Amino acid sequence: MFVTFLGDFCYTLLGKRANEDLVKIIVLGVGNIGYNIAKHLVSSENEITIVDHDRSRLSEVSNILDVRPVFGYASHPSTLEQAGAEQADILIAVTNVDEVNLIACEVVHSLFDIETKIARVRQQNYFEDKYRLTLFQPNNISIDYLISPEIEIARSISKSIKINGTSDVADLCDQIKLISVRCLDSSPVINTPLRVLSNLYPLLSMCIVAIQRQEQTIIPNINDVITPNDQVYIVIKEQQAREVMAAFGYTEQARRRVTIAGCGNIGRTLGKEIEQALPDVQLKVIEKDPVCSELGSKLLKHAEILSGDALDSDILREAEIQHCDTFIAVTDDDNTNVMAALLAKYYGASRGISLLDDMQNAQFVTSLGVDSIVNQNAITVSTVLKAIRQHKVRSLYAIEGGVEVLEVCVSESSNIVGMSIEDIVMPNQVLIALLKRSDEVHVAPEKFIISVNDYLIFAVSKEMVNKVERLVSGRYI
């Protein structure tokens, strides 16, 4: 029925969009993060302008994406004016230089008064409370959302250590999590149609919201099956995490001996996060740069800092890698991260995790033996989308490949009040993973009528996000 309803109703709303202004977004910096943000936001209802001082990169990205390129320095008023800052709704500053991002936000606040300003800042010194709480105020540095990829990556990895086998964990609502799992050849669920899972595991509350297979990401339907090496995204109840992971072939206990390769911004932030969130973990950090090692020794109170190259077998032996439960490579070089994780596994580490900036060869990397890939671009894109959507529809997580997990709080004016779950689900495009009503939580709900104040979690294809947002908002009633 939803195909009829959304096909007739929601697509009708698209025609009404012509009477509205496009959402005008400026992205400053088109490195991997800027490119992925633009890629995720490009649609018929967003007008994206990208700014960079690298002409070849601008040309490359504008040939791939439907965006308007502007050559220039991101913090210069003339460049921002040329990019259309006077009419822009959102500025996303993600260049590689923190200070450029900060100044650009201040310039558009002073000269153009853009409503939403988002800045990526890597240097953790800005996030110390004694500075952050004073600096980032409207009368000082006016930034609406400060994004730290290092903090978000550290939190994600720290959570994944708690649930063995996951490569990413996101908090959704009261003890509900979204986890990412790579399916092993030995996984009990391999080649099983999704419609059968509830019969095989009747006591488990879980909903598979997306499957990544090679270069494709889909929202599955009940007839889809899971195949080896699929990356599966599942909404679960936290208290059932161990049982869900066992269903996917992961039965070992949580990790207690952790080694980090790399003590740069991400490594130090991750080490600090582990010390705070997992105080019983025995932590070691390998770093070849003396300056980074010294910074790490000052920040980390309980970790053992080892000076050396994570690709050196001698330093791995010194780290007693054969007793390591989880080895996490988070240097600033993808190749080093992959090789370090593989070497650690070769010398006896139980699990190897690699941080990757370029996900193009992720499937190949996992086929070599790396257990989990941490996609830093996807984590950063998710954080940016959370900042953009802060009203009736809020982004919780962006999955690489064009699927977004959304949170919806149903209001009296919402068009979906009185509709059934079956009316709303659209195969491979829209899925409702969870319904919370008062204190009752239903994962993978089916026969419910939507009521005011219901809390819903959707998985939505990129093409349907704006349509679902307008459908839920009640804008056209």
Task: Describe this protein's structure.
It contains 17 helices and 22 strands. It is of the alpha/beta class and 477 residues long. It has four domains: 14-147, NAD(P)-binding Rossmann-like Domain (Rossmann fold, 3-Layer(aba) Sandwich), CATH 3.40.50; 169-247, Alpha-Beta Plaits; 257-376, 3-Layer(aba) Sandwich (Rossmann fold), CATH 3.40.50; 380-473, 2-Layer Sandwich (Alpha-Beta Plaits), CATH 3.30.70. It has a six-stranded parallel beta sheet, sandwiched between helices. Strands 14-13-12-15-16-17 form a six-stranded parallel beta sheet, with helices on both faces. A five-stranded antiparallel beta sheet has the order 7-8-11-9-10. Strand 18 (393-399) and strand 19 form a beta hairpin. Helix 1 (2-17) crosses helix 17 (465-473). The longest helix has 16 residues, at 2-17. It is globular, with a radius of gyration of 23 Å. Mean pLDDT is 87; it is low at 1-19.
